[in-house]
Design brief:
Structural class: alpha+beta
Number of helices: 6
Distance between the termini: 124 Å
Largest sheet: 7 strands, mixed
Number of strands: 13
Order of helices and strands: HEHHHEEEEEEHEEEHEEE
Helix content: 25-40%
Shape: elongated
Strand order of the largest sheet: 7-8-9-10-11-12-13
Length: 289
């Protein structure tokens, strides 16, 4: 009986040692696998954070573009595109993008290992005008801050066909390069036009042109040309929804009274109109819509 017990104990001890050896082998295998995996991960991180940024050229993506193509903007920053990620200067790229007159602001972010994202805020036109360039008269757009810039040109070679974009004439902008601002005293007019265009009613769809008449002491007056009428309307420098409504009512009333009206003057609180026969008339009282 004792021999059986001793033999059983010896078998148990041998079996236990075998299990321990197998367990140690598995543990060692796991440790080796973890070490190899850690080394590979470390190598990958080194490649991602050091090798790729130092060797690969940047990949640039754009957002916010509507008037400009990605290809044309890549041409603007072409001197930055051949640089490696670590050498890519966001300040240099921003300066180049901001040199485009139609760009109001830009945000540039770098993303490892070689990505650069550029978001562009384009200028929004509130009016358009014509300037001389290389002996030709070309259309340009004006934003609410009075900055001149190239607009979107369609297949008919016309700038922005938006009917809410009025044509401004008379502002002294001859031969002023794009990206420049119109004279300070006319910027209030651009702000007024921008406010009117934000209204639900498209008032400028009924106006073919707004002509600016400079006056002494930095002042100016406006002449509006309605689309469906040959009558021009003289008014002061304040342009708002109320003045445009008053203009339309005055135009309807005066044309109903006198079909041969050439000019309506609203500058001095009363309505004065002139016929083509050079007869001057004055309409008193208030118009009621």
């Amino acid at each position: 009986m004792s021999d059986f017990v001793i033999q059983g104990f010896e078998n148990f001890e041998v079996h236990g040692r075998r299990k321990k050896v197998v367990s140690d082998s598995k543990l060692n295998a796991v440790k080796i696998f973890a070490a190899v995996f850690g080394i590979l991960l470390l190598c990958e991180l080194c490649v991602y954070f050091f090798v790729v940024p130092c060797l690969d050229k940047v990949e640039v993506s754009w957002s916010g573009l509507s008037s400009y193509s990605k290809e044309s903007m890549n041409g603007v920053i072409s001197q930055c595109l051949n640089k490696k990620f670590m050498n890519f200067s966001t300040s240099e790229a921003k300066s180049l993008v901001m040199s485009v007159p139609g760009v109001e602001s830009v945000q540039i972010s770098k993303r490892f290992p070689n990505k650069v994202h550029i978001h562009v805020n384009e200028r929004k036109p509130v009016a358009m005008t014509f300037v001389s360039s290389n002996g030709r008269t070309v259309p340009v757009e004006i934003d609410k801050n009075g900055v001149l810039f190239n607009g979107t040109v369609n297949s008919s070679n016309l700038v922005n066909s938006d009917s809410s974009l009025p044509l401004i004439s008379g502002i002294p902008v001859e031969n002023i390069p794009e990206g420049m601002r119109i004279p300070q005293k006319y910027r209030a007019l651009m702000e007024q036009i921008d406010q009117i265009r934000s209204l639900s009613q498209n008032y400028f769809a009924a106006v073919s042109e707004i002509h600016v008449i400079p006056k002494e002491y930095g002042n100016y007056e406006l002449v509006l040309y309605p689309i469906h009428s040959r009558t021009r309307i003289l008014t002061g420098r304040q342009l708002n929804e109320e003045s445009l409504q008053y203009m339309m009512v005055a135009l309807d009333v005066v044309n109903a009274l006198e079909p041969d009206v050439e000019e309506i003057d609203l500058r001095y609180g009363s309505v004065t109109y002139r016929t083509k026969s050079d007869t001057l008339h004055q309409q008193t009282g208030e118009f009621v819509e």
